[in-house]
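Incident review: delayed structure delivery

Summary: a single-chain prediction request sat in the queue longer than the usual turnaround. Root cause was a stuck worker, restarted by the on-call engineer. No data loss occurred. The affected request and its eventual output are reproduced below so the record is complete for anyone auditing the incident later.

Affected input:
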Amino acid sequence: MIRVLLADDEAMIRAGVAAILASDKEIEVVAEAADGREAVELARANRPDVALLDIRMPGLDGLAAAEEIRKLLPDTGVLMLTTFGEDEYIERALGLGASGFLLKAGDPRELLAGVHAVADGAAFLSPKVAHRVITRLSGSRFTRAATARERVNVLTNREREVLVLLAEGLSNADIAARMFVVEGTVKAHVSTILTRLDVRNRVQAAITAFEAGLV
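Output delivered after worker restart:
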């Protein structure tokens, strides 16, 4: 069972999102919060697998809450849900360690897929968000590519193989099956990759792989 914390300051939105999540028998909403501070406290108390956070909330906003939750509970995946698709929100959310970004106007199936992916240790961007990220990266691709290639060069061949599969959106379990190794070995490789690339999460590692031309 995937245990989810849901935070949104609009009661109607919370009810709608909770209803969508309830349609999946493998997902359970264990707590609901109306603001970022409450979300952090409920995350501390319930230790969910996934924290699904709105960005704009009173008091402590979703971005600040995401940062605190990632520090308190590194095993809890953070998935941002918002009506706003501006680049600054996307970049800040991913930079703070969020594993995924969804738009409220997206397909409900994206929400369920995102929760499953993040709970499984993978990253998830809704198609519209992915397009914005890739378009932004392409604008400065030549200057960023050289830097990315230098960073990727410190990886072993095996680590590069894991990085490519990670960038394709595979979970640790899927990567392990693909490479015929145990999941613990993949987790160790991913941890080393994040450290050597000097990135905070799988999304940033995937972006580095894209910039370096590995995918």
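Verification: The mean pLDDT is 87.
Action items: add queue-age alerting; document worker restart procedure.
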